[in-house]
Amino acid sequence: MAKWVYRFGDGMAEGRADMRNLLGGKGANLAEMSSLGLPVPPGFSITTEVCTYYYAHDKGFPDDLKKQVDDGVAHIEKIVGMKFGDPNAPLLVSVRSGARVSMPGMMDTVLNLGLNDETAAGLAKQSGDERFAYDSYRRFIQMYGNVVLGVEHHHFEEILDLHKSDLGVSLDTDLTAENWKKVIAEYKAKVEEELGKPFPQDPRTQLWGAIGAVFASWNIPRAITYRKLNNIPEDWGTAVNVQAMVFGNMGNDCATGVAFTRNPSTGEKEFYGEYLVNAQGEDVVAGIRTPQHLTLAGKKANNSTLPAMEEVMPEVFSQLNDVRQQLETHYRDMQDIEFTVQKGKLYMLQTRNGKRTAQAALKIAVDLCNEGLIDKKTAVARIDPASLDQLLHPTLDPKAKREVIARGLPASPGAASGKVVFTADDAEDRAAKGDKVILVRVETSPEDIHGMHAAVGILTTRGGMTSHAAVVARGMGRPCVSGAGELRIDGKAKVMIVKGHKIQEGDLITIDGGTGEVMAGAVPTIEPQLSGDFATLMGWADEARKLKIRTNAETPLDARTARKFGAEGIGLCRTEHMFFDGDRIVAMREMIMAEDVEGRKKALAKILPMQRQDFVELFEIMKGLPVTIRLLDPPLHEFLPHSAEEMAEVAAAAGVPVDAVAARAAALHESNPMLGHRGCRLGITYPEIYEMQARAIFEALAHVKQTSGDTAEAEIMIPLVGIPKELTLMKAIIDRVAAEVEAESKVKLPYSVGTMIELPRAALLAGEIAKDAAFFSFGTNDLTQTTFGLSRDDAARFIQAYERQGILARDPFITLDADGVGELVKLAAERGRKTRPDIKLGICGEHGGDPASIHFCAQQGLNYVSCSPYRVPIAKLAAAQAALTSSGDGRKGEG
Ligand code: PEP
Ligand code: MG
Asked: Which residues form the PEP-utilising enzyme C-terminal domain (predicted)?
């Protein structure tokens, strides 16, 4: 016979905490608490398998369920010494849902089940409180009538309101037992009128009705929506928990409350919770009465004048405090508990692992480890890497009011408020005057860099998670919301319009780059607190992880920030990003626009010293560590001058007529720049560019080595290789320049040459390419773009439709597509290693900062991942977790 029902109570239980798949979270933990000998009202759980059966059999139940439920009821009756339907000692039960994971408030609950005309009178006699008994009965009819029988709520409300106005009272508490009896009669008449049959008086009929209703509520719209939002599978189903009622509203020796065993916002080891005397559970959450603090400390900290439970019921409080200790020691984690006190006796109604802020999660994990309850590995495993973002950037004050006017992608975390500006120059001007500004653009380009630097936040209406704005903002640690498509920008008029709001230049807005929200006005933020716990946990993560963590950085500021967070080198220095500032962009344009080698060499000569100086600083900062420098790789359009002003600037610098510049810009225009004249194709056509860059790198290396005796190790990386010979030719240039600089400086240069794998052809030919490559770095932004044939700059506009329809589980530009792109990574790694067993493998696409993608990289045995500076701690933690889950696939545990 199948076992459908698991009983608990009186120090015994047939279930256990680890049976949550079968019993639901609530049922499993009630069983566990009962086995621990805690005061749990007796009851039973009907398994999630019955839910599955119910839906598979046209809302029917297995034949042998009835007997098991009857046994369950008998079990409760025996323990509490009361009987279902017995007027002298009526047993009342609650019937509640309980899925594997908590779905708060999403499914239905019925309380006080077992009341009818006779048992209500019995309850009045037994409790000595007639008002309480009839109030309970009318609550039951209302709840059961609505949830199980489908009588709309307003019918009951109307009857009650009419009574109150007839009596001239406004509060439910003003009604007497006699008043309630009249309300009950009308409720019952209403139910009969609506359904054509009377309100069920038989407790067992009531029970089966309620069980069916809870199973049915698994599929009500709000529960379905909640599951979709939280990735909860449809087929999990819910369990049903039937449990003896206990009452917190039988007088002043009764109470009900909720508590956390530690403070869920700070993680402090303090008992944290609220209670109400003479109240039912809903009253605490409903906000009708002001809940009181459990502890004297809590009362004091909140300047409350209402008495604490510690004062009012010292004995029960001390018992509750013992339960708190016992539960924490048992579950080895912070618990979220619900309790009721009935006539001075404590009952535990629920326990579960408590939700907490990122800061609290860190503190609790570190403290529990120091208390000897968990080991370091468990502590490391408990922290959600992505949640660290909350700690590394300013965040919105959770208490602050906010008016969300638009939403985009959470492109770079952190929150910022500032005055709206629409151009990079305006950003710089206003910032120079001391204003905080948010730069709002349709999309950003390299020319906006100075404005992005000057701004405290960046908002774009177009572009995805790997758009220029997103990548650059993350690198700079600036909050960014990208692709907020509802916003309309009128650049000329300097206004943006959204949902009837007209926002002008200089108006205040707030963006939250962690959620993608755009808000009107300034919303207060709070600064990150990198406490000692953060450092401690990071230390434990470092002990566990195998992957090295590098950073994507071009500027000394980024490089320093990343080192502060513990980066172990630079995995990607995008050299073109070094040319966005000030005069450099002009020299760069001059070079790109030059008609011939001579013109290019002239411009390159201007660039060389600047480039050399950049590298000197990076090599000094990254002393002893590897620095991967990628030679020029811009889609050309990023550097072409657009405005007349820009053209004039380039013309003046190059000493040619403006017309010539305009003609050249038109000639260089490409219809598909991302697949155009970029990457090593530039080096093939204009070798002097790579030659200059190689010289700048080597002269910088020699200089740093000569002046400080130590330097970083240069890894020179050729982008967008798809044909092995491209690499062979570029490597020959680099090796030649290295030999020249070694001869000139008499310094042995620590360098190697490698390539990016960012085209499918490169992955396929990795064995051949590895002959010339000391390392591969997977450029998974382009590899995703080229494998899917999906533009990284345009995908954001429609990718959500793919996610909604379940065509893609997630945006492949955020989380590496293990099935497709990942196959290419795997294959390239294999083929590369076959040619060159010691080939160094890393990843430098945006995926290098994404926890699920990091798990994938760990599985493939890559040597390192490289991510933006502010993601370094996240990557470290994710890498540690990957190392700790030996079976590997990081995506499994994610819900
Ligand atoms: C990539 O393509 O993954 C990469 C890191 O290069 P970029 O984003 O600069 O094209
Ligand atoms: Mg690329």
From this structure: 531-882
